[in-house]
Amino acid sequence: MSTYLVSESAVIAATPQQLFDIIADPAMHPVIDGSGSVRAVREGGPARLSQGAKFSMDMKLGAPYKIQNTVVEFDEPHQLGWRHFNGHIWRYIFEPVEGGTKVTEEWDATGVHNKLALRLMGFPKRNRAGIQATLERLAAITAEK
Q: Do residues 93 and 79 touch, judged by C-beta distance below 8 A?
């Protein structure tokens, strides 16, 4: 595993399609985000993600900012990933297993344009806790449905 690839998995009692549908809805991203940085989906984007779709989010890491993402991986209901300007990919992989679905969330910065800036901001170290918290929130949301 690369220094610039952070990956965590959890088994969630839901089908891959149920979980994929949550992640494919940009409005759910602030709800499931365990990092505290995703604040709101910005208007004008798609209601559901698809290959090549562009969507923007209001974010906050110290100061508020907005980020535009492009879906670069789309294999329903198995994998969904998006990238923004610096080249990182946020990826979700859904694998059916006994008891539900193994969900893997990855922060893949192996292809980023400016690795020095990431390290100065505390990445990738700070991503692991946020990913773990996101998987916990995703499990809680599916348990409520």
A: yes
Of the candidates 89, 76, 87, 96, the one whose C-alpha atom is nearest the C-alpha of residue 24 is: 76
Q: Which of 64, 76, 68, 65 is nearest to 19 (CA)?
A: 76
Residue type, 15: T
What are the backbone dihedrals phi and psi of residue 100, each rounded to the nearest 5 degrees, phi first? Answer: 145, -125
- The pTM score is 0.92
pLDDT, tens digit (0-9, with 9 covering 90-100), for 56-112: 999 998 899 999 999 999 999 999 999 988 888 999 999 999 999 999 999 998 888
Structure token pair of residue 106: 């990855």
Burial category of 17 from C-beta neighbours within 10 Å (exposed 0-12, middle 13-18, buried 19 and up): middle
